[in-house]
Amino acid sequence: MSSHLPILYSFRRCPYAMRARLALYSSKISHEHREINLKNKPLEMLAISQKGTVPVMFLENGDLLEESLDIMKWAFKISNLPTDDVQLIQENDTTFKQALDRYKYPGRYAEEIGINYQEECEYFLQKLENQLSPFLRGNTISFLDLAIFPFVRQFSMVNPDWFEIQPYPHIKVWLRSFISSQLFEEVMQKFLFWTPENKPSLVLF
Ligand SMILES: N[C@@H](CCC(=O)N[C@@H](CS)C(=O)NCC(=O)O)C(=O)O
C-alpha cells in the first residue's frame, strides 16, 4: 500500500534521519514515514537508492534526495526559510562525526590508539559553546541548529554523568530546550518497521 505523498525512509535514532525529520516537521511537510531496520533494509528502498543509507526521501515527481542536508534544504525551500551551508555543518559531518563514532564505540576503529576522541570532539563543542546565543544564529532556531543538534545530543549521551559536570552552560541549555520541545517529541515518535503490506504511516499537517 502506498500514499501519494513524499516518502521518507528513516531510522528513529539515526542523527542524519533526525535532522531531516526536524526540518520536515518544522516546515510542516506532510509525508509518508517508512521506518526501516538498518540490519534488514527493505528491497523497495534499495531499489530506488543503492547506497543504502537513511534518510532517503522519494518525492512525488520521482526525484530522490539521498542526503540528509538535501532533504533539509528541500523542506526549508518549500517553507521559504533560509538555509545554511556553513563550515560548521561541514565540520560537524566530518571531523566531529568521525571523532564521535570513535568516542562512542571504543575499539571498533583501528586508528584510535593514542588518540583521545572525547577531546577531539570537544574542539568542536567549544566552538558551539562560543557561538550559542542562545541558538547558533541568535534568537531563533535555525537550519544550523537543526543540522547539528542530533549529533551533539548523541555526544552528551555517551557518558551523561561526565557531560553533566562539564563547563558547557550554553550547550546544555540549548540541548535541554530542544529535548523538551514538542517538535522533538513529535520527531521521536515511534513507528513499527515498514512493510509494503501494512497501512502506510502518514505524518500529516
Ligand atoms: N551522508 C549521509 C549519511 C547517512 C548515514 O550514514 N546514515 C546511517 C545511519 S545513522 C546509515 O544509514 N548507515 C547505513 C547502515 O548502517 O547500513 C546523510 O547525510 O544522509
Give an overview of the whole structure.
With 205 residues, the chain is of the alpha+beta class. The chain folds into 2 domains: 7-81 and 185-203, 3-Layer(aba) Sandwich (Glutaredoxin), CATH 3.40.30; 87-182, Glutathione S-transferase Yfyf (Class Pi), Chain A, domain 2. Helices cover 49% and strands 8% of the residues. It contains 9 helices and 5 strands; from the N terminus they run E-H-E-H-E-E-H-H-H-H-H-H-H-E. Strands 4-3-1-2-5 form a 5-stranded mixed sheet. Helix 4 runs parallel beside helix 6. Glutathione binds at residues 11, 14, 16, 38, 52-55, 67-69.
Quickly give the CATH architecture of the largest domain: Up-down Bundle
Element pattern in H and E: EHEHEEHHHHHHHE
Structural class: alpha+beta
Number of domains: 2
Classified by CATH, the class of the largest domain is Mainly Alpha
Bound molecules: glutathione
Average pLDDT, rounded to a whole number, is: 95
Biggest β-sheet description: 5 strands, mixed
Strand content: 5-15%
The helix content is 40-55%
Distance between the termini: 21 Å
In the sheet with the most strands, the strands line up as 4-3-1-2-5
Determine the CATH topology of the largest domain: Glutathione S-transferase Yfyf (Class Pi), Chain A, domain 2
> What is the CA-atom radius of gyration, in angstroms?
18 Å
Q: What form results from the Cα inertia axes?
A: globular
Total of helices:
9
Number of strand elements: 5
Poorly predicted ranges: none
Characteristic key phrases:
single chain, alpha+beta, Glutaredoxin, Glutathione S-transferase Yfyf (Class Pi), Chain A, domain 2, 2 domains, 9 helices, binds glutathione
